[in-house]
Amino acid sequence: KKSTLKPQDDEFGKINVNKILEQEEQEYDKFPSLAKLKRARIKEKLKLQENPEENHVGREITIPEIITVQDLANRMAEKTADVVKTLMKMGVMANATQSLEADTAEIVATELGYRVKIVNDDDILKDIEDFKDPATAMKKRAPIVTIMGHVDHGKTSILDVFRSSNVVDGEKGGITQHIGAYQINNNNNIITFIDTPGHAAFSNMRARGSKTTDIIILVVAADDGIKPQTVESIAHAKSANVPIIVAINKIDLPSADPDKVRNELLNHGIIVEKLSGEVLDVEISALKKINFNKLEEAIHLQADLLNLKANPNRIARGVVIETKLEKGRGSVATILIQKGTLKIGDIFVSGSEWGKVKALINSNGENVKEALPSMPIEVLGFDANPLAGDDFVVVDNENSARKIAEH
């Protein structure tokens, strides 16, 4: 009985080595390895060198060390189905979400008529690496404050009081637009407020470990005390390791009991100064605008204790607070500048988006030429909306921006 692994030549009755190798090759084709794919790539390159007239390879694409089938198709502006078919011809079964190694992706791209440049993660990301600023370059910056608390305890009212006190009479009719963050300036004492903590950006930034808030104002109604969202806000502050200032609101009501609030806070590890603790607390009324000067003083006192500083003389970095699509303006993102100075004309990357700063608009709706640390600014120049919580980084040139965004 003839062995299937040792086919014999009918004429000579000898083992035919070529047929055995051919059979093994057919079996091997069912399960192509990386080594086989590399051999195929080398073979293809040699073929192109020997027959330059057949070299129809088009534009160059850049790919990382690992790339999904879908992303590879997007970079080539080809249909995902065509990439899948090309992989199938190579004996690789894959779907749109499957990851490919760079060697495999390169063979596919070459087959479809593209030149490929493989870049590793370090080469791409070095352009957005942060660096430590020298102590001599650090300048005092404004505190960034987030107001948190239970629904209906007065968060929005407090923000409205701060905003209205910062707008001259002629502008008061224009404070209807919502902006995710804004600044108040009282005798050159600046405070940045992020509105609001329930914002998606706050959760995203906390999840990414990006500390954007310096101080949390915990609003508690004097007549209602601690509620579930109050407890949740305390947990947020503790997990982010952000100091709290307690604002006991609605003290104008007959049923107000600020001391009850202070005692309830003890159960959640918040000990205010009046109970020999270190947490600042202020009794206020947003409705009657009582003691807002004291709340502002408390914010600046806490900021002085934190010794908040940033280097304004470097390329800008920040975080996306919110995004929107506006008719006539396109994609607009509110960016909180954390370090450096953002200027018109700067090229930036934010998540998977990049662009060039076309206009900068401050929280008063004024066009400005630059934005300094702790300043919230609306940036025009995005092709599409980034995500709230995405980092915002200025880079040297468009080529770097495109590579990083594609990565």
List the helices and strands and how they pair.
Elements (H helix, E strand, L loop, with lengths): L16 H13 L4 H17 L9 E4 L2 E3 H8 L3 H10 L9 E3 H10 L3 E4 L2 H5 L13 E2 L3 E6 L5 H11 L15 E6 L2 E6 L5 H8 L7 E7 L6 H12 L4 E6 L8 H9 L13 E4 L8 H15 L2 E2 L6 E10 L3 E10 L2 E2 L3 E4 L2 E9 L5 E2 L1 E2 L4 E7 L8 E5 L2 H9 L1
Parallel strand pairs: 1-4, 6-8, 6-9, 9-10, 10-11
Antiparallel strand pairs: 2-3, 5-12, 7-8, 13-14, 13-21, 14-20, 15-19, 16-17, 16-21, 17-18, 17-20
Explain how this protein is built.
The structure is a single chain. The chain is α+β, with helices and mostly antiparallel strands and 407 residues long. It has 3 domains: 25-118, no CATH class; 142-307, 3-Layer(aba) Sandwich (Rossmann fold); 317-406, Translation factors (Elongation Factor Tu (Ef-tu), domain 3, Beta Barrel), CATH 2.40.30. Helix content is 31%, strand content 26%. It is built from 12 helices and 21 strands. The strands form 6 sheets. A 6-stranded mixed sheet has the order 7-8-6-9-10-11. Strands 13-14-20-17-16-21 form a 6-stranded antiparallel barrel. A hairpin with a 3-residue loop joins strand 13 (317-326) and strand 14 (330-339). Helix 2 packs parallel to helix 5 (102-111) and helix 3 crosses helix 4. It is elongated and about 100 Å long. 36% of the residues are buried. Residues 168-177 have low confidence and may be disordered.
